[in-house]
Write a structure and sequence with these properties.
By secondary structure, this protein is mainly alpha-helical. The chain is 64% helix and 4% strand. Strand 1 (164-167) and strand 2 form a beta hairpin. Helix 8 crosses helix 9 (230-237). The longest helix is centred in the C-terminal third of the chain and has 34 residues, at 420-453. It binds zinc ion. The site of zinc ion has 4 residues, from helix 13 and helix 14. Zinc ion binds next to helix 13 and helix 14.
Length: 575
């Protein structure tokens, strides 16, 4: 039984190294290929031979990546199919752990290779820098600490996953409770919010306990690798060669001076529309005019047709790309029983085509999601002819420029889904969401900068540091009577626990997306051409060059942000 929505897909380039009939889910068949690469490296006597070797390694990586993707897609499209689950888990448990040390061995062979420094400089600048960095940071004594870290993260996830409340006689998860914050009945919203907030506080001490241990572990990991603190280690580990902690601190300051006034204006606007004295935390998600939710489409086929129309109006090449995804059945978009939650875009790395998964139910958020994921898909299509596997993907800071730009550019044609008044309402919600994201991004990022550069702090000091950030970035929301809730509101941000320092990327990317959008206001054709050219570079250039190819500055300072927020603000006032 074929559990994949799409049929047979041929590799973009015929295989030259990986055997046609190999079973890529069977480690004993893969191991000899790793061994071949390990032993063959020494035979590469000139740069061309080493490049050839790299391409064989790339081919293996792409084939394995596609195998993993196929199993993941089958599993998420059929969560009720035991066979699909087994096949996925087999790969995760029996292939990946074996593969990891062999990949690392190949990396070590590569960076120590006599031809390493003789490869064409510009072409290999990014790849060599990243591989060298990965090898240089490895410390055998950190392996056990990283396992400890993963276990603590799992404890956190278990703690959060078990949180539930009894609301009006029914047990509900906290995620399910989110819906009540959109109810026009204010007393109901408050009741729901308080219940959730109090439930979270029950676990506050345990969250703090887990986090104390994580800080200790991470600080030790950094010290073992020769870094003064975990922040500096994390920057290096994430290959952040193109920006520094100082740039991020500058970003936080710029959010405070340039974006907070706009946030306060939006909050004030909401407060007035709701006819309230003060905004309370349960007043932030409801439609300020108490209107029913937007209904962009009734069924998924309609969503696809209308999205296609948006791309037809935007750009012929992108439109053809989305059309091709439909022809090849590379979309699984409807919400149905037996499907995993959420949405993602995944590359099939050997066929070099993108696949989009989501759970559309007919709300405006679905339209944002399909535009967003299509942006990621366009990125994959644009970088398709790049033969070095590592360069077919870009760093997150730029991947999200591809997707977030498409939300903004696609939004110009929302009339494909709505009458004009409703289209404007959707645009307004979207732009307010973009502006409102920056302060939380700055809070999460600045908090972690403080934490890991003050690793010896007490819990009381940590609380004070967080409250200071809430004062800077929380805006005008009245938490009186709920001071403890406010002081611990970071506990629900899983990135702080599970993915330290991974968050600012979204802020950086959003600045890129806003610039692409601003450029399109002046010259749509040029903005789209620059966007496509930058996407075609994949990950082959450093971030500042990817941004510059897209017509954007790679800067997060006040001077860059000011005109973008002005444009967004002007736009909002028109809607
Ligand atoms: Zn994304």
């Amino acid at each position: 039984m074929n559990l994949l929505p799409f049929g047979k897909l041929a590799p973009h380039r015929p295989r030259a190294f990986v055997p046609q009939d190999i079973d890529l889910g069977d480690w004993p068949q893969i191991a000899p290929l790793c061994a071949q690469l390990e032993s063959r490296a020494a035979q590469a006597k000139d740069p061309a031979a080493l490049e050839h070797w790299l391409l064989d390694w790339s081919e293996l990586n792409a084939a394995l990546d596609e195998e993993a993707s196929r199993r993941y897609i089958a599993m998420t499209c059929h969560t009720d199919n035991a066979e699909a689950e087994k096949a996925y888990l087999h790969f995760v448990e029996h292939v990946e752990p074996q593969l990891k040390p062999r990949q690392f061995a190949l990396e070590k062979i590569y960076v120590a290779h006599p031809q390493f420094n003789h490869l064409p400089k510009a072409r290999y600048q990014v790849f060599n820098r990243d591989v060298k960095n990965h090898v240089a940071l490895f410390r055998p004594e950190n392996v056990a600490l990283e396992t400890e870290d993963a276990k603590l993260c799992q404890q956190y996830q278990k703690l959060i996953g078990a949180q539930a409340v009894k609301f009006r006689g029914e047990e509900k998860t906290l995620v399910q409770m989110g819906r009540y914050l959109e109810e026009p009945d204010r007393a109901l919203r408050q009741e729901a919010w308080e219940l959730v907030a109090k439930r979270r506080l029950v676990d506050a001490d345990q969250c703090e306990e887990i986090f104390d241990q994580l800080i200790q572990l991470r600080t030790q990991i950094a010290k073992n690798a020769g870094f003064e603190n975990y922040r500096d280690f994390a920057f290096r580990q994430k290959c952040r060669f193109d920006y520094t902690p100082k740039n991020c601190l500058q970003f936080h300051d710029a959010v405070e001076t340039e974006i907070m006034p706009a946030v306060r204006e939006i909050q004030n606007d909401r407060r007035r529309q709701l006819k309230l004295e003060k905004l309370r935390p349960w007043d932030l998600a409801v439609d300020p005019q108490n209107r029913a939710p937007l209904k962009p489409f009734a069924e998924v086929g309609e969503m696809v047709t209308r999205t296609q129309k948006i791309f037809n109006r935007l750009d012929a090449e992108l439109a053809a790309g989305f059309r091709q995804m439909q022809d090849l059945k590379l979309l699984d978009l409807d919400n149905r029983k037996g499907k995993a939650p959420g949405g993602y875009q995944q590359n099939l790395s050997e066929a070099r085509v993108p696949f989009i998964f989501m759970n559309a139910i007919g709300v405006q958020r679905d339209v944002e999601t399909i535009l967003h994921e299509a942006g990621h898909a366009f990125h994959a299509q644009a970088a398709r002819d790049e033969d070095l596997y590592a360069y077919r993907g870009a760093p997150i800071e730029f991947c999200e420029v591809a997707s977030m730009s498409m939300e903004l550019l696609g939004n110009e044609f929302l009339e494909e889904f709505y009458p004009p008044v409703e289209a404007n309402r959707a645009r307004k919600t979207h732009l307010e969401g973009i502006i409102g994201f920056f302060p939380w991004m700055a809070t999460v990022d600045a908090f972690q900068h403080w934490i890991y550069t003050h690793a010896d702090h007490t819990r009381a000091e940590r609380k004070a540091a967080y409250l200071q950030l809430m004062d800077r970035f929380g805006g005008d929301v009245d938490y009186s009577g709920f001071e403890e809730v406010r002081a611990h509101s970071w506990h629900r941000q899983l990135h702080i626990f599970l993915h330290p320092f991974y968050y600012v990327e979204y802020g950086i990317a959003q600045l890129g997306a806003l610039q692409v959008w601003a450029n399109s206001r002046w010259n749509k054709a040029k903005a789209l051409n620059d966007y496509k050219k930058a996407l075609a570079l994949g990950g082959s250039r450093p971030l500042p060059e990817l941004f510059s190819a897209a017509g954007c500055k790679f800067k997060f300072d006040a001077a860059t942000i000011r005109p973008l927020i002005q444009l967004a603000g002007n736009e909002l006032r028109k809607l």
